[in-house]
Design a protein that fits this description.
mainly beta, four-stranded antiparallel sheet, globular
């Protein structure tokens, strides 16, 4: 069974940092694009970052470039999102997703999703 479990969310002041983790089970990361998405109240779901094999190519939304970094650890079957210089507008539920044989550059089909973790940034 494919399962994604996010962790690491919480409350942080503006300018602070958080590190989110996505633990994958039931599949190996080397066959999947992995992405982080977020959804804030009153807004649609937004793709924040993506990483895909075979070369660990990455994508970042313009709103987070230079502040967030996505990494993968195949040995631990875990994807992380390091979030620095957080802003109140980063407040959202953050979701991890997986796309079988997907490429970040090719509009992957996100077939599996975690249940999300709340990130709240106070001003």
């Amino acid at each position: 069974e494919v399962q994604l479990v996010e962790s690491g969310g919480g409350l942080v002041p503006a300018g602070g940092s958080l590190r989110l983790s996505c633990a994958a089970s039931g599949f190996a990361l080397d066959g999947f694009a992995m992405g982080w998405f977020r959804q804030a109240p009153g807004k649609g779901r937004e793709e924040v970052a993506c990483i895909s094999p075979p070369n660990d190519s990455t994508y970042y939304a313009d709103s987070v470039k230079g502040r967030f970094a996505i990494t993968s650890d195949n040995a631990k079957n875990t994807v992380t999102l390091q979030m620095n210089s957080l802003k109140p507008e980063d407040t959202a539920v953050y979701y991890c997703a997986a796309a079988f044989r997907g490429l970040c550059s090719g509009g992957p089909n996100w077939g599996s999703w975690g249940r999300g973790t709340q990130v709240t940034v106070s001003s």
